[in-house]
Structure formats: structure tokens, C-alpha cells
């Protein structure tokens, strides 16, 4: 049952406009032609507004990976078998996944949370088990999850942000692992954007054109089955989402409530961001889009959120990997804002 006083409907915190204004003024005094640092200037100014300081910092980065299996995987929508979700979580715990390498290189903290797995995950202190069910239901037949399951998933994300906040995190990255989740993400994108599966459903891990046509057909079938729910963003997420997508949605909303900047990764993360924006208005001001995913349909979502991706490396991995690669850009934007000399300090003549 929808209750408007539920925490996830609370609008995002207001950005600190005074800090943003002060950062803008400082940019004009730094020893460079006005605007010469391009988007790095905008990033520093936005971060100043989010962190409430003229000298923002994103030294302390937290990456939280949410993993879960999907009922829709039974319909052959991925190039890989469903067991890969659990196998990749184990790989992440051992430090061998792409995101493990990137997190190490950044000195970023990483947390692994499993919300649903068809393969039992061995007890491992590096993996947090928040199992809701082995997988979501197949959304071509019924709602992917129940109201209670969605609330639990959202709360798992919120709790992860509370732990990150407690550790002094300055930038939050959500990553995901879940075979079949590009189908769920595409279905969500179609529902929230009222778009055609032909435009937004793509090959994910790399299926051929015949299976892609089948994947589009399944999404169209799910949209037909659940369309009467699409006026309600919560019910839309319940019908079409995944546990990991919903947890990421909850995490993003908690960031926007607790004044924590969000770096959004690729296709699946952006679907979670879109869900978050429909539940929690204004959250897009707390977000940066890290990169353009090669998955077609990503662009429609970043456009709808009003976000311009920082990188375009042709990546289509997920795990938070594209976001990790964009961290140095944000870090350097902050360092330039904080450490460059002003014209007055350096004795350099200012321009007009
Ligand atoms: C080895 C491997 C590592 C991954 N890391 C992220 N994904 C990505 O691929 C999956 C989504 O694609 P689809 O919808 O086609 O299944 C997700 O788990 C996503 O994070 C991976 C996929 C595989 C196979
Ligand atoms: O951009 C992503 O997040 C993505 C794209 C394809 C497969 N897995 C993840």
C-alpha cells in the first residue's frame, strides 16, 4: 500500500546555493582564462553546492555492489547462465573482477551485498547477505516482487548509505551484478519514459539479433501485462525491477536525503536512478552521470534525468566500473578548485 509519508517519497535535500555561489566566484579568481577548465569548473561548483563548502573533496569514495538474480533469466535473455551472478560475486570478493581492480587503484572502499541468488553463496565475511528470495519472479507472468520485498530492497540500499556516511564517504557509487538485469532495466526505462522496447532494449552481455528480438518481445509482453501500474513509480519498480536495482534506488534516495554526492554508472544503474527520480523529486541535482554505456537506450535515460555523461569509452560492463573510471575527473576538478592560486595570490594580471 502506498503511503506518501514513506521515507523514499521525501524530496531530495536542497543544494547549498551559498557554497555554490562562492565556488563560482572562486573559479573566476583562479589563474586561468575564465571558463578554460570547461566542465571541470561546473563539476567543482556542483560538488561545492552538494558538500556545502567552497573546497569540496571526493578523496573518500565508497562503492557498494548490489547483486541479485532475476526470474526473467529463465527466458534466455542473457548470453550467460544465471549462476554467473553468484560466481561473479565470489570473484569480486576475491578481488578479481573489473570493479575490484578499479576500486583498489582508486583506494576506494567496496562493499558487496547479495539480495537474491539462485546459487547459495558460501558464508564469507567479505559478502553481506541480505537475501530476500532466490530471485525475483518472472515479470512476463506476474509482478517481479511483492510490495514487502520492494520495501526491504529499498531499505537495504538505505542502510548501505548509512554505513558509508558513518565512514565519512564523500562520493557514493552503486554497482550491480545480476544476470538478466539489462532486461529489467530496459523494461523500467520503457515504462518510466513511455518508450518502445525497440528503442531501449539492447544486447546486454552480447546476445545475437534473433535473441534480441525475443528479448524485445518479452519486454513488450511485460509492459502490456503491467501497464495499468505505470502511473505509480513504486508499483512500476515492483512489477519490473530487480532486488539489486531497487536496493540501488533506495541507496540513491538515501544519498539525496543525507547530502551525499552520487556518481551513476551505466545502463542498469541509470534505470535505478530514473526510478529514484520518479520517487524522490530533485534527486538528479545530487547525481553525476559517469559515462555513456554502449547499451542503446542509456542515452534516453540520462537525457530524461538531465545528466550529461562524463566519459564515452564504449563500455558496457556495469559493476560500477564506468563510475570508478570517472572518479579521477571529479577528484581533479576538486583539487583544481581548492589548490590553484588566485590571480591576486600569484601576482598574475587578471583579464577583462
Ligand atoms: C562475467 C560477467 C561479468 C559481469 N559484470 C557485470 N556484468 C553485467 O552483465 C549483466 C547484465 O547483462 P545481461 O542482462 O545480458 O545478463 C549484469 O550482471 C551486469 O552487471 C557481467 C556479466 C558477465 C557475464
Ligand atoms: O551499462 C551497463 O551497466 C551494462 C551494459 C550491458 C551489460 N551490463 C551492464
TrEMBL record:
The active site is at residue 319. InterPro entries: Nict_dMeBzImd_PRibTrfase, Nict_dMeBzImd_PRibTrfase_bact, Nict_dMeBzImd_PRibTrfase_N, Nict_dMeBzImd_PRibTrfase_sf. Its EC number is 2.4.2.21. GO terms for biological process: cobalamin biosynthetic process. It catalyses: 5,6-dimethylbenzimidazole + nicotinate beta-D-ribonucleotide = alpha-ribazole 5'-phosphate + nicotinate + H(+). The keyword Transferase applies. GO terms for molecular function: nicotinate-nucleotide-dimethylbenzimidazole phosphoribosyltransferase activity. Pathway: Nucleoside biosynthesis; alpha-ribazole biosynthesis; alpha-ribazole from 5,6-dimethylbenzimidazole: step 1/2. Keywords: Cobalamin biosynthesis, Glycosyltransferase, Transferase. The keyword Glycosyltransferase applies. Catalyzes the synthesis of alpha-ribazole-5'-phosphate from nicotinate mononucleotide (NAMN) and 5,6-dimethylbenzimidazole (DMB). Belongs to the CobT family. This is Nicotinate-nucleotide--dimethylbenzimidazole phosphoribosyltransferase.
Amino acid at each position: 500500500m502506498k503511503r506518501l509519508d514513506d521515507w523514499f517519497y521525501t524530496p531530495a535535500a536542497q543544494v547549498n546555493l551559498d557554497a555554490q555561489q562562492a565556488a563560482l566566484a572562486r573559479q573566476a579568481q583562479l589563474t586561468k582564462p575564465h571558463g578554460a577548465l570547461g566542465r571541470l569548473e561546473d563539476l567543482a561548483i556542483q560538488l561545492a553546492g552538494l558538500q556545502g563548502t567552497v573546497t569540496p573533496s571526493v578523496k573518500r569514495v565508497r562503492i557498494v555492489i548490489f547483486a541479485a538474480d532475476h526470474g526473467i533469466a529463465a527466458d534466455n535473455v542473457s548470453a550467460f547462465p544465471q549462476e554467473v551472478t553468484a560466481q561473479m560475486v565470489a570473484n569480486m570478493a576475491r578481488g578479481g573482477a573489473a570493479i575490484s581492480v578499479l576500486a583498489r587503484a582508486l583506494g576506494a572502499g567496496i562493499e558487496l551485498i547479495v539480495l537474491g541468488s539462485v546459487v547459495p553463496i558460501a558464508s564469507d565475511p567479505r559478502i553481506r547477505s541480505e537475501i530476500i528470495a532466490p530471485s525475483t519472479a518472472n515479470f512476463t507472468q506476474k509482478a517481479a516482487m511483492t510490495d514487502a520485498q520492494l520495501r526491504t530492497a529499498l531499505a537495504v540500499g538505505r542502510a548501505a548509505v548509512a554505513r558509508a556516511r558513518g565512514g565519512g564517504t564523500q562520493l557514493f557509487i552503486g554497482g550491480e551484478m545480476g544476470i538478466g538485469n539489462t532486461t529489467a532495466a530496459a523494461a523500467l526505462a520503457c515504462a518510466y519514459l513511455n518508450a518502445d522496447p525497440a528503442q531501449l532494449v539492447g544486447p546486454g552481455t552480447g546476445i545475437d539479433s534473433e535473441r534480441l528480438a525475443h528479448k524485445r518481445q518479452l519486454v513488450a509482453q511485460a509492459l502490456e501485462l503491467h501497464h495499468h501500474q505505470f502511473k505509480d513509480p513504486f508499483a512500476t519498480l515492483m512489477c519490473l525491477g530487480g532486488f539489486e536495482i531497487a536496493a540501488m534506488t533506495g541507496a540513491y534516495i538515501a544519498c539525496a536525503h543525507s547530502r551525499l554526492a552520487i556518481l551513476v554508472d551505466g545502463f542498469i544503474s541509470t534505470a535505478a536512478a530514473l526510478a529514484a527520480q520518479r520517487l524522490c523529486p530533485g534527486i538528479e541535482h545530487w547525481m553525476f552521470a559517469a559515462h555513456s554505456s554502449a547499451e542503446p537506450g542509456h542515452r534516453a535515460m540520462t537525457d530524461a534525468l538531465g545528466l550529461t555523461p562524463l566519459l564515452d569509452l564504449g563500455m558496457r560492463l556495469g559493476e560500477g566500473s564506468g563510475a570508478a573510471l570517472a572518479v579521477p575527473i571529479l577528484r581533479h576538478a576538486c583539487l583544481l578548485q581548492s589548490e590553484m592560486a588566485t590571480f591576486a595570490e600569484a601576482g598574475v594580471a587578471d583579464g577583462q
